[in-house]
């Protein structure tokens, strides 16, 4: 078995390292202290292909593999764990969920916008009374007489929850 990294994997690693050291590390402590969401950096990371690393190119992603994703995450996380958490939710919980279970129309609309950095996605599972035990969640979606969905419930700890355009719930 050949354990050497491919050219594509080395390229995304270098892109992530460069951005992390030049743009994230210098402002990480300041953003942490002020509780500021790194919106500008996240958008730029999307343009660099870091928000949809495993997303196929036809849906706006970089079309790379899981090793490439892990290499990029290591670089971003070394500069700022908060930024890498946002990146991780966009890449895996959000994009992978829709890629695996969404329709073609949903993939084009909801994955492309996140993978390209146009906007931010979130994944809302945790509730005040249920974390690991997700089956204890209370949130419910019910259809009203007009055929619209009404969602009632409380969520907590949702990464990017306050800034996300789309949320998997
Ligand atoms: C930085 C951060 C970002 C997050 N982002 C998101 C997000 O984007 N979306 C989202 O939905 N949630 C998010 N969460 C919430 C996270 O998913 C939950 O915190 C996690 O699921 C654990 O739930 P809990 O905190 O309620 O702890 P609990 O589930 O109550 O667990 C408490 C402790 O008990 C242990 N434990 C739990 N069940 C068992 C068991 N059956 N057997 C043995 N031990 C057990 C756990 O390992 C842990 O040590 C985030 C949390 C953090 C800290």
Average pLDDT number: 96
Task: Please identify, by name, the CATH architecture of the domain at 7-120.
Answer: Orthogonal Bundle
Uncertain runs with pLDDT below 50, 5 residues or more?
none
Helix fraction, binned, reads: 40-55%
Helix and strand run: HHHHHEEEE
Taking strands numbered 1, 2, ... along the chain, how are they ordered across the largest sheet?
1-4
Tell me the fraction of residues in β-strands, as a range: 5-15%
**Computed Rg:** 17 Å
Number of helices, counting only DSSP H or I runs of 4 residues or more: 5
Structural features:
globular, Butyryl-Coa Dehydrogenase, subunit A, domain 1, two-stranded antiparallel ribbon, 169 residues, binds flavin-adenine dinucleotide, mainly alpha, two-stranded parallel ribbon
Write a short abstract of this structure.
The protein is mainly alpha-helical.
